[in-house]
Write a structure and sequence with these properties.
The protein is an alpha/beta fold. It is built from four helices and ten strands; from the N terminus they run E-E-H-E-H-E-E-H-E-H-E-E-E-E. Strand 3, helix 2 and strand 4 form a beta-alpha-beta unit. It starts with 9 loop residues before the first strand and ends in a 16-residue tail after the last strand. Bound molecules: NADP nicotinamide-adenine-dinucleotide phosphate.
Length: 178
């Protein structure tokens, strides 16, 4: 799976949710969808990842060769090789310039970045079936965004959302070998 992404400093949200916005269940994903997971891994390959502490702790294993930027207010949370930020202000003051970041959730950190208008694009896997879960993402911020459908299947569709004024389109993501 090869992807061509826009160059330059930007933050792209990558999430998967069901029709009710369900994102997580008891510290893990509510579903097991290998194809969606493959898409996610290929998309974020090699790029710095931003996430909340709960999402970090939900990862079955660390994806290698990339910086991790994790939000936590706990002073005792200091995993090795992880940049921990105790606030959005701390992140903005210390993030490297020029990098393309993927913000991979969860719901709390998505809300934080959406409210601060820090997201340039969002790539969302809309899963068709409904799942049980207590973590729901608020996607209201996407209502004014343009979107194009990049992939569809019986199980999930992938939509690319562009911040008003942005220029990512599904062509930029073609050729990923779905
Ligand atoms: N379907 C998907 O695409 C997807 C993606 C990601 C995660 N998930 C699932 O979603 C669930 C986790 O999501 P979540 O919304 O509960 O948690 P989360 O967003 O991953 O993490 C929340 C944590 O982030 C820290 N935090 C929040 N705001 C902060 C701020 N302003 N400054 C510093 N730190 C801040 C706090 O950590 P401390 O408590 O340490 O202070 C908070 O408890 C899991 O079930 C996971 O599997 C699903």
């Amino acid at each position: 799976m090869t992807l061509t992404l826009p160059r330059g400093a930007m933050i792209i949200a990558v999430l998967a949710c069901d029709p009710s916005g369900t994102l997580g269940n008891q510290g893990t994903l509510p579903w097991q969808l290998p194809q969606e997971l493959r898409f996610f891994r290929a998309l974020v390959q090699g790029h710095p990842l931003i996430m909340g502490r709960k999402t970090y702790e939900s990862l079955p294993r660390r994806l290698p060769d990339r910086p991790y930027y994790v939000f936590s207010r706990q002073n005792s949370f200091k995993p090795s090789n992880v940049h921990v930020f105790s606030s959005l202000k701390a992140f903005q003051e210390n993030r490297p310039s020029g990098a393309l970041f993927f913000m991979i959730g969860g719901a709390e950190i998505t809300d934080l970045f959406a409210k601060a208008n820090l997201l340039d694009y969002a790539i969302l896997s809309h899963i068709h079936a409904t799942y049980k879960g207590e973590v729901h993402v608020n996607l209201d911020f996407l209502k004014a965004w343009k979107h194009t459908c990049f992939y569809n299947s019986k199980i999930f569709d992938v939509l690319c959302y562009t911040y008003p004024g942005g220029d990512l389109n599904s062509q930029a993501l073609k050729g990923n070998g779905f």
